[in-house]
Structure formats: C-alpha cells, structure tokens
Amino acid sequence: MPRIWERFLTERDKQVFAASGYGARQGFGRRPALLIIDVSYGFTGDVREPVMTSIERWPNSCGEDAWDAVPVIKSVATAFRAKNLPVIYTTGVARPDNWDAGSWSWKNARTQEWTTGADRRIDPNDIVADIAPEPQDLVVLKQKPSGFHASNLLSYLVLLGCDSLVVTGTSTSGCVRATVVDAFSFNYRVSVVEDGCFDRCDASHAISLADMNAKYADVVSSHEALEFVAGLNNDLFDNLPKRPPTSA
Predict the structure, then answer these.
(1) Contact 60, 54 (CB under 8 A)
(2) CB pairs under 8 A, 24+ apart, for 16-23?
(3) What crossing angle do the helices spanning 202-215 and 177-185 adopt, rounded to 10°?
(4) How many Cβ atoms are within 10 Å of 14's Cβ, its own excluded?
(5) Distance from C-alpha of 10 to C-alpha of 8, rounded to nearest angstrom
(6) Is 41 exposed, middle or buried (0-12, 13-18, 19+ CB in 10 A)?
(7) Residue pair 167/37 in contact by the 8 Å Cβ criterion
(8) Residue 237 counted as domain residue
(9) pTM above the 0.90 mark?
(10) Of 9, 43, 142, 159, which is the most exposed, with the fewest CB atoms less than 10 Å away?
C-alpha cells in the first residue's frame, strides 16, 4: 500500500531510504500509553469548515483535516480505556495577556490572537469536547512544542512504568514531531497513528510522517493500533488513577 509521503519524495530520496537502512519496523511496546497531543479548539476551530475559512478566526486551525482525525482519535482512546491503559493528553496553557508566549511570537505575526482573537467563549487550549478527557485520564500542560519540555509527562510515564507510546494529535510537523523525537531520545518505542494526526499543510504532514517513520517511530494506521490494543491484557497497569464509581 503506498505511503502518504511517497508522492513528495524524489526517486533519489526513495533510493537513499532503501539503501541506508532507515525505516526498519521496531514494533509496539509491551506497556503502552496513548498520547493525544494538543487536540484543542485552537488547532481545530470551533466547527468543521475549510482550513482557509477556519484560520480567519483561529490562526492555528488545521481545518477539516482536524475533524477527520477526531473520530479516529476517539476510537483509539476508547480502546485504550477498555483495556485499562493510560490515556494522556497535552494542551497549552497561557497567561491572559499571552506574555508567556515568548519565542512563539518571533515566527508568527498572529500569536497575540491566541488569547485575544477568535471566539472568546471558547478557550483555544480547551480540548475538543468529542474527545474530552475522562476523570481517570491524565492531562499535561505545556508551552512549547514537545510534550516533554518543562512538563510532568516523563515523570508520569516513569510512575506508570510505560515502555512505549502510541501518538496521535497535532500538528504532525510541530508538536507531534517534537514530542516523538523527545520520546525516542528517552528510549521509548513510539508508534504514530497516521490517520489520527493532522496538520494545516499537506506537505509538512506527509514529510514529517516520512521522517518519523524513517528514524524515530513506526507510522501505523489506526487499524493496526486497534488490533494491537485488542491483543493486550487489561491488567497491565494497577496504578492508574481510578475511575469514579458510576451512579446507579
């Protein structure tokens, strides 16, 4: 089956990848956590609409591609919860005046709109309601691309005893890639769910997937991820936060 990035590669690129040994399949780990990166309204917009319409109000929106990925992410999260596996979200956090945007403002002229623009009834860092965290899930706040930078993510993974990550979210070329590279650097096995990731730029999305698949992760379909989770025991993690009891 052709990979999404093949149409962006030259014949020389394909030959280099084939000859250099990159892209070997590492496989899933034994104690995985699902990581859902930044699927918040700032990156999806508040409704499904074409990206060029959405970015008029939400400058970081990825438009319709975001809403295509949301049900995929939901299905993978549901499968993880059914097996009592960790589900971890990242999202941003900012001061009301956006002073702490810091270096974000150096490369994007619309950075200040993150807190002052769009629809102020919705915080752009709010995770999309369709896949909102459940009480037992973990939420990591961050201010830079990698979910590991100056956050609690690594300490949570150590506490849980995870050996691997299944990664979804946005943007493929930014926060997803940065997080994947850091996870690789901490010696975690990483699988990236291709149809559970999205970006505002088709080329950036595809080439970032190609690079991650070559060097840092296995890029897999949601079908592969769901098959893997279905084969796991449901007692791998005895130290997850407990689900609150359901009312009668």
Answers:
(1) no
(2) 17/214, 22/214, 22/215, 23/213, 23/214
(3) 10
(4) 11
(5) 7
(6) buried
(7) yes
(8) no
(9) yes
(10) 159
What DSSP letter does each residue of 143-188 carry, written as one string?
A: SSSSTTTTSSHHHHHHHHT--EEEEEEE-IIIIIHHHHHHHHHTT-
Q: What angle, rounded to 10 degrees, do the helices at 222-230 and 64-82 form?
A: 10
Lookup result for tokens 């919860």: 81
Q: Going residue by residue through the chain, which has 248 residues, state the pLDDT in tens, using 9 for 90 and above.
A: 789 999 999 999 999 999 999 999 999 999 999 999 999 999 999 999 999 999 999 999 999 999 999 999 999 999 999 999 999 999 999 998 899 999 999 999 999 887 766 666 899 999 999 999 999 999 999 999 999 999 999 999 999 999 999 999 999 999 999 999 999 999 999 999 999 999 999 999 999 999 999 999 999 999 999 999 999 999 999 999 988 776 55
Query: In Å, how far are 28, 141, 153, 197, 235 from 37, measured between CA atoms?
Result: 19, 10, 12, 9, 25
Q: Which residues contact 185 (CB under 8 A, 6 or more apart)?
A: none
Name the residue range of residue 130's domain: 28-230
CATH of the domain at 225: 3.40.50.850
Q: Which residue in the block uniquely carries the two structure tokens 């926060």?
A: 175
* Amino acid letter for position 57: R
